[in-house]
UniProtKB/TrEMBL annotation:
Domain Aminotransferase class I/classII large: 48-368
Stored PANTHER family: AMINOTRANSFERASE FUNCTION, HYPOTHETICAL (EUROFUNG)
GO MF entries: transaminase activity
Protein name as annotated: Aspartate/methionine/tyrosine aminotransferase
CDD domains: AAT_like
Record lineage: Bacteria, Pseudomonadati, Pseudomonadota, Alphaproteobacteria, Rhodospirillales
InterPro entries: Aminotransferase_I/II_large, PyrdxlP-dep_Trfase, PyrdxlP-dep_Trfase_major, PyrdxlP-dep_Trfase_small
Organism this protein belongs to: Inquilinus ginsengisoli
Pfam families: Aminotran_1_2 (PF00155)
Keyword terms, alphabetized: Aminotransferase, Transferase
Length: 384
């Protein structure tokens, strides 16, 4: 494995996330207090929490938690069982371990660009990688498009994995079912694994657009899930891998012995509570997005000379274009330094695999404070 480069997005956040007054680019939904989460517990779950034993937990994850996770894959394709699930510490550990287990120096992988950096950098530290660009597509729902033919053209005889992130960070892109099926068909015809980061699954604008999880749709599909984003519980550091290939899951489990060994017992117990209240938490979060999005629509309509905006098809982040002459890097630096409003410039999504848009910025709209952060951005524009 080659040395990993600096994680541009996390370094930027290390500088600003907890110092900027207004966080207008969070990747996750509004969180909650421990008390609020415990209030959602059934009497049995509350009892389990009060009696929680703070020993090591099972490396694969507590059986009750794995069963609850499996219960979230309830599609018409037959669903999954607790034995198809491996619990990880955040999605980040799932990405890291799955790629270690799947890829070696003789392999080739394909990744969508721009992308959440670990999907590109961890892969590139293990094998050859080709980036397939997500293209702006003003006529498509959500404003972005993936061309399955270009993806097929990027494959090599030794391509072992295609990495997807659907719904996508930072664009909110969600393919149509036809494009999704085309990608699965391409992979299946060559026996290629698909690893799909599905941390925004559950935040589709229209429920009927939700795609099957790749672990349900494809026998060589590995789904990455987490409580951090759609559920707004990143402090639990509770993620998972779901896959119907038990041998691969076992190999990943043995790698986990070298990273975290097991997930924190309190997080596992709280994760069971959160998944038990899944519908209520997701409904709350969808309602928050539904309240915030019109404010963004109106803001970008008022400032159409400065920005190009299209509401994303899913998720709680978007990647609008900045049209100002000084460029998006100077703009975002000025906004955070003078007005304390944090946006993520395109440079944190730079890629070593080819050109990616350099005039975009990430905005997040999953928080109760999104309206006041947006108002601070508007005040900045008015003062400029
Ligand atoms: C697409 C994507 N995958 C994975 C992660 C890592 O998630 P976690 O914090 O749960 O490890 C993030 C975090 O921003 C993300 O946006």
């Amino acid at each position: 494995m080659r040395r990993l480069p600096e994680f541009a997005l996390e370094s930027y956040f290390a500088r600003w996330e907890f110092t900027a007054r207004h966080h207008l680019c969070p990747s996750d939904m509004q969180s909650m207090t421990l008390g609020e989460l415990l209030a959602l517990a059934t009497p049995d779950q509350r009892e389990a929490w009060d009696q929680l034993w703070l020993g090591y937990t099972e490396t694969r994850g507590a059986p009750a938690l794995r069963a609850a996770i499996a219960g979230t894959y309830d599609g018409p394709q037959g669903g999954l069982t607790a034995d198809d699930v491996l619990v990880t510490v955040g999605a980040e550990e799932g990405i890291f371990l799955a790629l270690q287990a799947l890829l070696g120096p003789d392999d080739h992988a394909v990744v969508l660009t721009p992308t959440y950096q670990s999907l590109e950098s961890v892969t590139a530290s293990l094998c050859a990688v080709t980036g397939v660009l997500l293209e702006p597509a003003p006529d498509a729902a959500g404003g972005w498009a993936l061309d399955p033919d270009r993806l097929a053209a990027s494959l090599r005889p030794n391509t072992r994995a295609i990495l997807l992130n659907l719904p996508h960070n930072p664009t909110g892109y969600l393919p149509t079912r036809a494009v999704f099926d085309a990608v699965v068909d391409i992979a299946r015809s060559r026996g290629i694994w698909i690893l799909s980061d599905e941390v925004y699954r559950g935040l589709e604008r229209r429920p009927e657009d939700r795609l099957p999880a790749i672990a349900e749709a494809y026998e060589r599909g590995l789904s990455i899930g987490v409580l951090s984003k759609a559920y707004g519980l990143p402090g639990l550091r509770l993620g998972w891998l779901a896959c119907r290939d038990r041998d691969l899951l076992r190999r990943i489990e043995r790698l986990k012995d070298y990273t975290t060994i097991c997930s924190p017992a309190p997080s596992e117990a709280l994760g069971v509570i959160a998944l038990g209240a899944r519908d209520r938490i997701l409904a709350r979060n969808q309602a928050l997005i539904a309240a915030n999005l019109p404010l963004l629509e109106a803001f970008f309509a008022r400032h159409a000379d400065r920005f190009e905006w299209q509401a994303p098809a899913a998720g709680c982040i978007a990647y609008p274009r900045y049209r100002g002459a000084e460029g998006v890097e100077a703009f975002t630096a000025d906004v955070v330094e003078r007005s304390g409003v944090l946006l993520l410039p395109a440079s944190v999504y730079r890629s070593t695999l080819g050109p990616v848009p350099a005039d975009r910025f990430r905005i997040g709209f999953g928080r109760t404070k999104t309206p006041s952060a947006l108002a601070a951005l508007e005040a900045h524009l008015a003062a400029a």
